[in-house]
From TrEMBL:
Matches recorded under PANTHER family: GLYCOLATE OXIDASE SUBUNIT GLCD
Keyword Metal-binding set for record: no
Cofactor: FAD
Signal peptide (residue range): none
A Pfam family assignment: FAD_binding_4
Source taxon at top rank: Bacteria
Organism: Denitrobaculum tricleocarpae
Any one Gene Ontology molecular-function term assigned to this protein's record: FAD binding
Every FAD-binding PCMH-type domain range: 48-226
Protein name: FAD-binding protein
Keywords from the UniProt entry: FAD, Flavoprotein, Oxidoreductase
Entries under InterPro entries matching the protein: FAD-bd_oxidored_4_C, FAD-bd_PCMH, FAD-bd_PCMH-like_sf, FAD-bd_PCMH_sub2, FAD-linked_Oxase-like_C, FAD-linked_OxidoTrans_Type4, Oxid_FAD_bind_N, Vanillyl_alc_oxidase_C-sub2
Length: 495
């Protein structure tokens, strides 16, 4: 995994840049000490580390605007960062660039129950939104497993989902408006409290843009009323294939659960040892199916799904009889990632998405890959929308195992594309999947995507080295004429 070569001339200007940045963000808002900068050297993908040149922690939109304008004028690279929980290296710093941390943007600015929305700063945690409105019977639907820590700005950058995204959608389906700052310092507002916006869907373009197009400084999100009733079924199977077949059967029957999650045997045992959720330990796969809505509807759907589970060979079956029991079912799933961390020195969390009917086939192929690489794998995933999260178990202290884990992960992602899926469901491309983009997109596709970036960031200063496997200068993406064997703009470096 290679990043653009650092600009040594920019690195040599560090003291000068720190002085000028402190004029914009005074006090403790600019961090230059090498030891203090190590806090920012990686995000959740800790296999890759690189301290930034400088970290800047603004407190206002005006400061963000001035910082970006200064960086634009001076040609300084900028990596926006939220809570650093990204699992794709999306917030990996650059040795010759600044980290722009939005952690101080942590206020809920407005809660508007009449319009069922909230206006928040990007540093507010995902769960913090729900906590602020739950007393009135409302909540914010997207709920990634890291929701206690991940921030709404990062959710926008990665288009995060969660266990309830099958029915209630990803971040993009729950977003109404943004305030963002472009690389030249321009402050732009997109959307708002209204449900429909005129013109191009720039809100959709920004959601999932991974910090390549602008820096989000305010977010307006949709609030939902808490369902009247929610109950969950805990279903055990003798094989992952059988559980996968039930997933397809439920969707084929026209049922859209509030959430539908699957874990295989290693993940079940790890979660139960960690949380004591009451999971059966004599099954190969566990499916959690949550149904919500009016009580009569939920009771009917519980009966229907129970019958489908029997037809697919469920060997254990429990239905939550209280809110505490339902939350206990989910507690194990929500804690699956840290739980797996207790059974392996290291693990590599993947993120690919496949058509639901391919689940049995993909699970079989992953078992074969596990045997080939001689590395264990624990599967935890959003079964309802086919978003896989295989956790590849390895020991970084053993020579070559990290490389084996990465190769294993790459093969899983290629398999996802092969069966009609995509490289990522919610973690983003970042640096982790960057070099696999040609497996999914043609060169024409990738260049067209880069033209969009050029419209927002012509000098490629925002989060460079991420998403695109080959860096093109914006001038190269226009009409190219070669005269006498000479490329235009010969002074531009090409990677």
């Amino acid at each position: 995994m290679l990043m653009p070569d650092p600009d040594q001339a920019m690195i040599s200007r560090k003291r000068e840049l720190v002085t000028k940045l402190r004029e914009i963000v005074p006090g403790e808002g600019v961090i230059a000490d090498e030891d203090e900068l190590r806090v920012y050297e990686s995000d959740g993908l800790t296999a890759y580390k690189q301290p930034p040149l400088i970290a800047v922690l603004p407190e206002t939109t005006e400061q963000v605007s001035q910082v970006l304008k200064f960086c634009h004028e001076e040609g300084i690279k900028v990596v926006p960062r939220g809570a650093g929980t990204s699992l794709s290296g999306g917030a990996l710093p650059l040795a010759d660039g600044i980290i722009l941390g939005l952690g101080k943007f942590n206020q809920i600015l407005e809660v508007d129950f009449d319009n069922r929305c909230a206006v928040v700063q990007p540093g507010v945690t995902n769960l913090g939104i729900t906590k602020a409105v739950e007393d009135e019977g409302f909540y914010y639907a997207p709920d990634p497993s890291s929701q206690i820590a991940c921030t709404i700005g990062g959710n926008v950058a990665e288009n995060s989902g969660g266990v309830h995204c099958l029915k209630y959608g990803l971040t993009t389906n729950n977003l109404l408006g943004l305030e963002m700052v472009l690389i030249d310092g321009t402050v732009l507002r997109i959307g708002g409290k209204h449900l429909d916006s005129e013109g191009y869907d720039l809100l959709g373009l920004m959601t999932g843009s991974e910090g390549l197009l602008g820096v989000v400084t305010e977010v307006t999100v949709r609030l939902l009323k808490k369902p009247e009733t929610a109950r969950a079924l805990l279903l055990g199977f003798s094989s992952s294939e059988a559980a996968g077949e039930l997933v397809a059967a439920i969707i084929a029957a026209g049922i859209v659960p509030g959430g539908m999650e699957m874990m295989d045997r290693p993940a079940i045992h790890a979660a139960e040892d960690f949380v004591h959720a009451g999971y059966p330990l004599d099954v190969e796969a566990l499916l959690i199916v949550e149904l919500d809505g009016p009580k009569a509807e939920v009771d009917h759907l519980i009966e229907t799904v129970s019958g489908l589970a029997d037809a697919k060979g469920a060997v254990t079956k429990r239905v939550s009889e209280s809110e505490e029991e339902r939350m206990r079912f989910w507690a194990g799933r929500k804690a699956a990632f840290p739980a797996v961390g207790r059974i392996s020195p290291d693990y590599y969390c993947m993120d690919g998405t496949i058509p639901r009917n391919q689940l049995p086939h993909v699970l079989r192929r992953m078992r074969e890959m596990s045997e080939h690489y001689q590395l264990g794998v624990a599967n935890v995933f959003h079964a309802g929308d086919g978003n896989l999260h295989p956790l590849i178990l390895y020991d970084a202290n053993k020579e070559g195992e990290l490389q084996k884990a990465e190769d294993f992960g790459s093969d899983i992602l290629r398999l996802c594309v092969e069966v009609g899926g995509v490289l990522t469901g919610e973690h983003g491309v970042g640096v982790e999947k960057r070099d696999l983009m040609p497996d999914m997109f043609s060169d024409i596709d990738l260049k067209q995507q880069q033209r969009v970036k050029c419209a927002f960031d012509p000098d490629a200063l925002l989060n460079p080295g991420k998403v695109f496997p080959q860096l093109h200068r914006c001038a190269e993406l226009g009409r190219m004429h070669i005269s006498r064997g000479q490329l235009p703009f010969p002074e531009l470096p090409r990677f």
